[in-house]
Design brief:
By secondary structure, the protein is an all-alpha fold. It has helices at residues 5-24, 37-70, 75-100, 107-136. The protein is globular.
Length: 151
């Protein structure tokens, strides 16, 4: 459940936003690649299964081992992990924005896209860590199979 539930919660939030937006502004395959919010939502609308599989793999391979190790860290170590996550989000947001940026739109458009990508990533990770905290902290009870006695 620690692998599936946190990414699922983040994706549900974004899916609701994209679906509600698609009612007002219909999403078409040709909308992708324009370098704006609508294009980003169109990409999510059509590619969400691939993104979700990537999120599950990231959760299993990277996030959970760091999460488990962070329980034994001091508060400074936990703060460093949160700061490193935010910095990585900033680096990836800038890289993604630069890749899809059209130079004719100007540097302010690049900055706006980078901020948008950063906010989307940080929102996802806040939801993810919140759900992990609920699961590990005991607020969400996971059903465990009763152990059978070995005779």
């Amino acid at each position: 459940m620690k692998v599936f539930l946190p990414p699922f919660a983040g994706f549900v939030v974004f899916a609701v936003i994209v679906l509600l937006q698609s009612i007002v502004f219909p999403i078409h395959l040709g909308d992708m690649g324009k370098g704006n919010l609508h294009a980003f939502m169109a990409c999510f609308y059509y590619c969400w299964p691939l993104y979700f599989i990537t999120a599950l793999l990231t959760q299993y391979v990277i996030v959970l081992p760091i999460w488990e190790a962070a329980h034994s860290w001091s508060m400074v170590g936990k703060d460093a992990a949160v700061t490193a996550t935010a910095l990585l989000c900033g680096i990836f947001a800038g890289g993604i924005a630069y890749i899809i940026w059209d130079k004719q739109t100007g540097i302010y458009h690049l900055a706006g896209m980078a901020i948008l990508m950063l906010l989307i990533q940080l929102t996802y990770w806040v939801i993810n860590f919140f759900m992990l905290g609920l699961i590990v902290g005991g607020k969400i009870k996971l059903k465990h199979k009763p152990a059978t006695a070995i005779e």
